[in-house]
Every structure is written in C-alpha cells, then in structure tokens.
Amino acid sequence: MFNLPQLMVGSNRYPRTGVHDALASALSWRLWLLLGIREVNSHYQRAFIGPAWLTVHAGVWIAAVTFIFGYVIGLGESTTSYAAHVAVGIVMFHFITNIVAGSSEVFIKSRIMIHSHPNPLLIHPMRLAASAVYEMALQLPVVIAVFVVFHTSLSATAWLAIPGLMMNFMMGVAVALLFALAGARFGDFRFVTLAAMRLALFITPVFWPADRLGPDTRFIADANPLTHFIAIVRDPLLGEPASMLAWITVLAWFGLCAIIGGVWFASARRTIPMWV
Q: Average pLDDT of 141-168?
C-alpha cells in the first residue's frame, strides 16, 4: 500500500552522536511516518473494514461509558457536555496508553531492522508516536459525531487544542525514547507500564469530571500528569482555555523526560543493538 523510503543500506555505521541521530531521524520523517501507518494497517489487514475497527471500537466504548456513567450513575449533570468530555478523554487516553504501553518494546520489536540496517535509532520511538497519532486520527470521526449529535458548539478557544496536540506528540516521542531504553535494558519494565496504565484509567478524569472531587481529594487529579496532558486538549474544545497549572505541569514533565531520555540515549545508543 505504501512505498517506504529507501533504508540506509549503503553504510555500515550509525550516526556518530546522539545529536546526529536526532537530526537524521527528523530528516527521515517519511520513513518513520509510513512505518507507523503500516504497523497499524498490518494489524487489520485480514479484516473487512480494516483499521476502521478503531473507529467502531471508539464509538462503542464512548457510547457505553456515556450511558453508564452519564445516565445510570449520573456523573454528568449535563449529558451534552459530559458526552464530549468522555469522547475527548477516551481518545486522548488511548493515545497516551499506546505510547506508554508500547514504548517498552520499541527497540525489541525493531531488532531485525536495527541489526540489518544502520538507520538512526530515534526513528523507532518516532514510528511509535506516528502510529499512535494515526490511530487517534481514525477515532476522530467519533469525537466529531459526538459534538454534532449532542449539539456541543466549538468556541474560539478550540484553536488552543492544536498546541496541546503538538505537545502531546512531542511528549509521546520523549516518553517513547525513555521507556524504549528502559524496556530494552530491563526485561520487567514492560509489565510495570502495563500495570501502571490499568491503574491510571481509574485515577485519571476520563470518565469523571475532576471538578466533582472535593478539596480533600482534588490532589488525586492534580498530582496525576495524565490529567494535564488530556486537559490541554480537552478544555479548549469544551470552551475553556487550559489552566496555567496544566501547562506548567506538562512542560515540566516534558523537559524532565526529554533530558533524561536524551542523556541516556546519547550515552547508551551504541549498546542498544547488543541489548536487543
């Protein structure tokens, strides 16, 4: 379906430094983008509707959660705003889960390419981030349908969701690199991330609004970084700019992960082929 750019088979050397690797990976954007799309499509190559199953799954999941938590339990006083809250929250949480849960095996699953083609190593975490964005794009029609069906209008603040999405992608690359290194070095790390994301589903305001928590329990949401990564996209779409706390938290976590991952990658990149 896609013609992948030529791999770097003419050289038997990886880029000299971590900076060279990062620059070479950025310039190879067509490679990691198409690899990410092809990876998602390959999971559904025998299905009749193909990757559209992601759209169906998102629609069923959002409808079920909105009915159970909105109507039955009554978490949303206004079903109109609650449905949009759930729709954006589920799609964003799915994106984050794809990054966190999949990143620990990025280098391990790419071992054949790493050993046979001396491409920049950073293309593999970027490929994971690209596949997560592709899946999010396939789920976007469900979010649009929810906004239309429940007559949720967009205000001028909706444009502020764009930098929020860009920051989530950048954080996705940083986390994918950091966790890919940890997963390649420590065999048990992927089980830790899977357990953490299962717990995170219940302590992140995806199904429930954070403002429903009292003063004594609000820290559960505020101390959770996933809350703020979702908020910088969801709040503008629901008519309110993301809070200063959300952006400060997001930028702080991005800086921390980027620095740790970048330093570790620069020092360990030559041993990654031996780890996998």
A: 91
